[in-house]
Amino acid sequence: MQGNYAKNGMCGKAMSLLNTMLQNSLIPNSVTYNTLIDGLCKEGQIDIAFSLFDSMKKKHCNPDEWTYTVLVNGLCKEGKLQQACDLFNELLEKGIAPGAVIYTALVDGHCKCDKIDIALALMVCVERVPRTLHLKSSTPW
Fold it and tell me: Which one, of 24, 25, 5, 7, lies nearest residue 15 by Cα?
């Protein structure tokens, strides 16, 4: 239910549900936090998203690659490239392997701020990200 609220632009209701969970001693996991952080970033509420990110860490729920990707993307969309790069460096320092999506967000952000040389350098990194092939068991071949 929380995911539906966040995805449909009703982050206030989703945050209320999170608070109810916490009041009832229920422990949210990274999926819960990531869903809310993503919704907040998409609504342009990056400051609240970062407050939730800090809360997540204080509750000993470790941010994962997707948490960082969503926040970096949100920062890039707002033209806050230095903060996005700082957060990306934090991800690296924590030993979390960045995926193609986070690099794509950084490339997009740098292009929109006319920092094409950095965007091109990042494209080289995107090309080095390992890709995996997922096949469904129902694949006819």
Answer: 5
